[in-house]
Amino acid sequence: MTREIKAQSRLRRWLVLLPLALLLAGLCGCQTLGFYTQAIKGEYQLFAHQQPVEKLLADTNTPLEVRTQLETLTNLLAFAKSDLGLPADDNYSKYVELHRKFVVWDVEAAPEFSMKAKSWWYPVVGRLEYRGYFSQRGATNYAAFLERKGYDVFVAGVEAYSTLGWFKDPALSSFISEPAPDLAELIFHELGHKELFARGDEDFNEAFATTVGEEGARRWLRAKGDQTAYDQYEAELGRTWQFVHLVATARKRLQELYGDEVTPQGRIKASAKPPLPVTRMREEKLKIFTQMRQDYARLKVEWGGNPDYDAWFARRLNNAQLNSVAAYYDYVPGFARLLEQSHGQLPEFYHAAARLARMPKAARHERLSALGRAMAEPLGHKNGQPDSTAAGE
């Protein structure tokens, strides 16, 4: 498996493209119009090059590796529908060879001296804390524009996304060659977005889908009876959660440095004025990132030299990069606790999560934060991560 950033391996993005998006964009500025134009063009190119999976499986000219992965995908979709209760429908019944490493590139940004992520407004879905481009050049050009305005910026390649039911999503060459456990998590994650969506709440949506993806992958591996693969997957998740803790620690220190106010719901309000002179702020910021690198070096020794996150740390660390992790994991402990309270029954868990989604955003975040604090107790955790065995089957 080749990835630009191993740390982003489970950071799945989703994107909604509407038939009327171009008309809506016409009401906005030229830059917004250009964004929607490239999005519609990119989505059209995917649809224009789709091939039926069933036909590819029957074609002896289909490369063996692709056929094997498509067979695995077919089995995963059947499991998602029968055992996880997810809306598989006709999704991933088509395949697209992209001839590139990623399907889209995401741009995220934050002020130089605040952890409050920049957000953008989109039709139907509301405000999100990233902007997706179907070309790497488009993403890097927009990132450069934001950097000139003084933002910390992070650009990451994305292997998969969901259109949340507006279209039947195809399987893509950017993710089809994933190892089976990672492919399982990815597919279940994306289907999780179709199961539940809270308008304008990226943190809620991504944490829910992350929980569904990880729990689904665990259950699929247990159903296969492959204990070795299951243990390896659990070890990978353990490293991920140690990395997430490392990021959370650095984010907290940066919030304190910047004078950010953190609400009971975990939302960030930027300080009106930096508490220290700019030069001193930059020095202290650099010290926190240096400490983070040192902590990772010690963690890597504990992992026996495992290089999973080397590429992530090879970048020039900044606020936006740390936020890119937080969006996916901040509320996962809360959802893990909700799964426990649902006795491991996924339909009950989905209904409980849907009830949260109907609450006002601040109230649902406060509830998830409270659930997460309960999950921080020893029960139900393993190596710092939620342990599904406490929830039952």
Which segments are poorly predicted (pLDDT under 50) over 5 or more consecutive residues?
Answer: 1-30, 377-384, 386-393
Number of domains: 2
Structural class by helix and strand composition: mainly alpha
Query: What is the distance, rounded to the nearest whole angstrom, between the alpha carbons of the first and last residues?
Result: 30 Å
| Continuous helix count | 15
Describe this structure in words.
It is a single chain. With 393 residues, this protein is mainly α. The protein folds into two domains: 6-201, no CATH class; 228-390, no CATH class. The chain has helices at 21-25, 30-48, 53-58, 64-82, 136-148, 173-176, 180-195, 202-224, 227-258, 278-302, 310-314, 319-329, 332-341, 346-357, 361-375, and strands at 51-52, 94-96, 104-111, 120-122, 126-128, 131-133, 151-158, 171-172, 261-262, 268-269, 381-382, 385-386. The strands form five sheets. The protein has a three-stranded mixed beta sheet. A three-stranded antiparallel beta sheet has the order 6-3-7, with helices on both faces. The model is unreliable at 1-30, 377-384 and 386-393 (pLDDT under 50).
